[in-house]
Amino acid sequence: MKVLGISGALRKASTNRLLLAEARRALGDCDWSEGDIRLPVFDEDIETGPGIPKKVQALADAIAKADAVVIASPEYNKSVAGGLKNALDWVSRTKSSPWEDKPVAILSANDGRAGGDRGQFALRLCLVPFRPRVLPGPEVMVADSRHAFDAAGRLLDARYFKTLTALMEKLKVEVGR
Fold first, then answer.
1. CB within 8 A of 95, min separation 6: which ones?
2. What average pLDDT does the segment 92-107 reach?
């Protein structure tokens, strides 16, 4: 199974990158890669001038080639992280429809007590026009995320990893459909 992980957090040491690593561990043996969302801010003048940036097309191609996508993203101001929303906007402008019918699992790690629930809700809304198969759950929302991982980057609370593993199992089933 070929899986693309996307972190909605740009920071290298973000807890959402740690959560993606835990998702990869929960999936077990798979062909895992990570998408790069460090893209220029969407600007139609770029699109109509020089054209779709190579990094945007590379992300769209990686989504298209994956059997499934796992997105781990923080909630920024009760919504989608800006870098992730920008990436979604750019990919929507490519010639293909890489998200269509693609199984997608959404995760979040946030410092707040709800673990990014509003950000997940907003992300689900942002994905609707692209028609992926977004898994409804189990929902993985890691609260107080800066204290949720050990020094090795593993989730401290076994319940979080159990829920994450259940979601990854559902993702495998969805890919097999």
1. none
2. 97
